[in-house]
Amino acid sequence: AGSGRAALRACGVHNVCRLLSRRAHGFYARDAGVAHRKNLGLLRKIMCQESTKFKNVWTTHSASPIAYERGRIYMDNYQCCITSIAQQPRLIYQKSKCAKSEKIEDALLLECPLGEMLPRPSDYKASLIVLTVQNWLLRLSADSGEVLEKVYLAGSCCKFFRYLSWDTPQEVMIVKSAQNKLPAAARQAGIQQTVLFYLAVFQVLPLSFIGMLEINKKIFGNSVTDVAVSNGILIVMYSMGLVRLYNFKAILEQFMEQPFDLGQEFNWNGQVGIVGKYPFGLPCNIKITDTPPLLFEASSLENAFQIGGYPWHYIITPNKKKHKGVFHICSLKDNTLAKNGIQDMKCCSLEPDWIYFHPDMSGRIIHVGPNLIKVLKLKEVKNHEDQMEIAEDFTIVANRENCVNNSVTVTASGRVVKKRFTLLDDDPEQETFKIVDYEDELDLLSTVAVTQIGADGRAHLDFHCNEHGILLKSIPLKESWDVTYSHEVYFDKDLVLHIEQKPNRRFSCYVYQMVCDTAKDDD
């Protein structure tokens, strides 16, 4: 704070907004983030130069899933870790093969928060939170795979925890159970199952237990199909497309019966044990006895519901199958449809188009179709400050210049032939967008476009200016791309990583590194 005031006095700036703007442009050399921002700016310029290439430096294949997290490639159910930051990917650690009972169901990367005092030296290094099939929550060192902490989750209440997610990224974590279902024999005997899900809530670094609660039919209704927690909101989804939002923090505060700490001895409902230790696990200490106050509800096809933008808006699809691919953008304040708020690309394709709020926090919206990407923005309607409209910021169009799709052709003899069918918008023989992502550190929008002719598919990764959509760089991927397979592409500063899942659980990983070379070669 003192250095900030000194900077203000030194340059005669008395407005906080101006100071922040000048800091963002690197006016103050002693600012901790200036060097980092300058380095990322230089990396972006180097990467987009014509002479800069991306070379396939490493390829591997596996019979088990391959995962990528912040410069680390995980294989063999997280028993093998490989760094992708080195010039050539190299092994960080390899653990012995684990038993089926120790299989990892889900994982989250945990990174050290800035400016906080933590109890253990190991807390300042990156670690991996993993959930095993036997309901153990483990914190592993990202550098060695060593177990740093372990918590047993399932006591008498629940036996099947399966999913990890963030409520607040790198701060509050949610562990969710699989949906509780009674065996067929129990259902035939007339036994009722009222508890659908269990949610365990943890603060991370240091790892501490906040509480466990159940999602019960008696409170939330019989047709609940799924639940999620995000940014302090409990999201409950129903079979008829209904989505309801509740204040999760208020639920924790209102219905907490008794707080518990990990390692604490407890006597709970006749059980004596230690919190987080086998065989007692965690107590279900948050009992929702009445329906919490409803914040918001909406009906949407397949429970598709998103919130974002400024001022707050939400995106839904009207809850009828005929409206699939039609998106309504409405104000969260009063549910009014924004002007031009119905977005419909009218695609004729096997795979539907998709839409979401831009992850760069600009409040914009990205709408992706087979051959068109629209970046939309919210702005005030002229002379109507209370009403917002959707305007086009920029578009990115697939390269289909050589595509000819005439419904009528004339033979050499002059006979007119009419086709009985037309090509789909996402026909494999036409360039089609498959992946759109955002690289926040370089402020680049990345797209993967694919063209498949016969059995051979070709893909290229393009980098676009996030502000204006201008194409800055195109990288051809060397490997063949089959559109029927599942694909993930990660763009992480100077690294491109492609993970492919083939039939019969065969996985491949292709790593590309940035190479600066003015010489013209095949690399």
TrEMBL record:
An example Gene Ontology biological process: protein ubiquitination
Superkingdom assignment: Eukaryota
Transmembrane feature ranges: 195-215, 227-246
Keywords for the protein's UniProt record, in alphabetical order: Membrane, Transmembrane, Transmembrane helix
One cellular-component annotation, GO: Cul4-RING E3 ubiquitin ligase complex
Pfam families, alphabetized: DCAF17
Keyword Transmembrane in annotation: yes
Name under which the protein is recorded: DCA17 factor
